[in-house]
Amino acid sequence: MQPLDARIRALFDETREDPSAPFEEENFLQHLVRPATQPIDDSFKGKRFKNRFIDRLQLELGICLPDDALEKRWRFGDFVAYVEERRRKPAVNLRMAQKRLQESKGSDVTLLLILNLLLLPPLGVIGAPWAYLYLVLPLALNALVVGAKIKSIRYYRRLVRAMETPSS
User: Fold this and answer.
1) Measuring CA to CA, which residue among 49, 16, 54 is closest to residue 155?
2) What confidence tier does 123 reach under pLDDT thresholds 50, 70, 90?
3) What are 128-137's contacts with CB under 8 Å, separation 24+?
4) Nearest to 8 by CA among 75, 72, 93
5) Helix residue spans in the chain (DSSP H)
6) Mean pLDDT throughout 41-49?
7) What is the dihedral of CA 94, 99, 100, 105, to 10 degrees?
8) Distance separating alpha carbons of residues 26 and 9, to the nearest angstrom
9) Per-residue confidence (pLDDT) for residue 53, from 0 to 100
10) How far is CA 80 from CA 77, 87, 110, in A?
11) Are 60 and 7 in contact (CB under 8 A)?
12) Counting Cβ atoms within 10 Å, is residue 40 exposed (0-12), middle (13-18) or buried (19+)?
């Protein structure tokens, strides 16, 4: 089994937009995307690469990182030490993952669907040709929200299962 810093570096390189790009230890998450000139959280692309890296890291190492840890600017060595510290607390990680799974199953999607059922039918009664546009756009947005919710639930289920399964 390879050392933790090598595993994290391998995950980092696999997730980066350009694995051959120069890499600095200072604020290493910044180097997930190219160019690394603006803060990674200031773009959708940066957030997508950062979330992909964090999700893979959590699944492969059986940890669940708190939100405040994801907002910090990490040096690579400090991040490795923090992950090692988190790995020594499996019960805390499991509780956090279970809590996030329950939050993912929250009722906000149910509320969204109920509001749609109450508000959208009157638009269809109007009968104007453009009224269907008012039906399609909210339903498409709802599909995106529900899809994201389902993806989140599936991810946290996999994470909880990975943490509950004893590693060999």
Assistant:
1) 54
2) low
3) none
4) 75
5) 4-15, 44-61, 67-70, 76-87, 90-104, 108-126, 131-164
6) 85
7) 130
8) 14
9) 93
10) 5, 11, 40
11) yes
12) buried
